[in-house]
Specification:
This protein has one helix spanning 2-18; strands spanning 24-39, 44-61, 65-78, 83-97, 103-123, 134-154, 159-167, 169-170, 180-189. The chain is mainly beta and 190 residues long. The chain has a single domain (2-189), classed as Porin (Beta Barrel), CATH 2.40.160.
């Protein structure tokens, strides 16, 4: 897998050295951010950090619009005993961008669907194979819109460093961690 990735990166850079028109781009990002989890039905509230990763693929239309898709997964740990909330989401993304030399600021919106899986262990531990007397597992699907803003810095014509911030906004009331996520990654332009 590592060899395939290195070959992909090398060929992408070689191909883009011959072409100045970007038709599409895609890449991977890691993210983190402060979250607030409010599980009113269990009278449980938590604040903490979420961490995750994912990627995007976008097609360029003209010199200011990109349309494509994205998908991410994010995990927030609770109580230090194996409890967690894991959110996976994906959908369509549209953004507008402007080019100022090597800098490319952008703003857009994503919309799609996702699922949040939450395991809360109120009594017990993840350090044994014993049945836990007081644990809750809850899965819930949702639709969302997600405004985003960011900037890409062209390291080369084909390789861009990406900084992004977004916030998932579910279209219905859902008990899951919510807050801003901050992304760092690389996008490869073709």
């Amino acid at each position: 897998m590592k060899r395939i990735f290195v070959l992909y990166l090398f060929l992408s850079c070689c191909i883009m050295a011959k072409s100045q028109n970007i038709r599409f781009d895609g890449g991977m990002m890691v993210h983190a951010g402060p979250m607030t989890a409010d599980y009113a039905s269990l009278d449980f509230h938590d604040q903490g950090a979420t961490f995750g990763m994912g990627g995007t693929l976008r097609f360029h239309f003209g010199s200011h619009v990109r349309v494509g898709g994205e998908g991410f997964v994010s995990t927030m740990k609770h109580m230090g005993n194996g409890s967690y909330s894991r959110t996976g989401w994906g959908g369509a993304v549209v953004d507008a961008y402007w080019t100022f030399g090597r800098w490319m600021p952008f703003a857009g919106v994503a919309a799609g669907g996702g699922k949040c899986s939450t395991l809360l262990v109120f009594e017990g531990s993840d350090g044994d194979w014993e049945a836990e007397p007081d644990a809750v597992l809850h899965n819930e699907s949702f639709f969302f819109v997600s405004p985003n803003i960011g900037v890409e810095v062209a390291l080369t014509h084909a390789v861009h460093l990406t900084l992004l911030a977004d916030r998932l906004v579910p279209t219905k009331k859902i008990e899951m961690p919510l807050g801003w996520r901050f992304y760092l990654g690389f996008v490869f332009a073709h």
